[in-house]
Amino acid sequence: MVAVAGRLFADHGYDAVSLRRVAREAKVDPALVHHYFGGKDELFGAAVSLPADPGDLLAGLDPAVPEGRGELVAHAVLALWEGPQQHVLAAFARATIGSASRTRLLRDVVRRRILARIAEGLPCDAAERELRAGLAATQVVGFVLVRYVVRLEPIASLTVREAEAYLAPALERHLTGTLPPVRGLAGAP
After folding, report:
1. CB under 8 Å to 149, separation ≥6 — which residues?
2. Residue 86 and residue 64 share a domain
3. What's the pTM value of the predicted model, to 2 decimals?
4. Does residue 152 come out as left (phi exceeding 0), alpha (psi in the -120 to 50 range) or beta?
5. Same structural domain, 26 and 114
6. What is the 8-class DSSP label of residue 155?
7. Tens digit of pLDDT for each residue in 137-171?
């Protein structure tokens, strides 16, 4: 039932999937879905739980060595999205985009568990670390949406190796490259 729900959420988005439809396609009584999941949010949560712990995905990240971090992050992101949980991740992305509460939840998870880890040890102050991690996130989210959710060509058809080769330098630039001077940032005019 959870696998069916994950596929339906991935294919049609959160709003277009009803509990009745999940039950019908899973060939179970709708009461069974309500019994185990109470409601659509609970079923969605079970169907799209994070398929991997961000700490495990970023285990090779050494806070003392900022260089090369873009490559490590690109590799981790692509390994996750190319894996068997791709449909679950796509469902999560689609549903999050359309829901303020899910967007808020995702923002908190990403900020605390992923971006803080990616920015850890960068040789700058906390505000700049947060900015750099946020800029890197724009690259990851954009790339993931274009490649796996929207499936825009030719990005969707790149090999994993090609995708990593394009994504890693952009991440590296945001994480460790020179940022343009912007009014309001430390050290800027």
Report:
1. 90, 93, 94
2. yes
3. 0.69
4. beta
5. no
6. G
7. 999 999 999 999 899 999 999 999 999 999 999 99
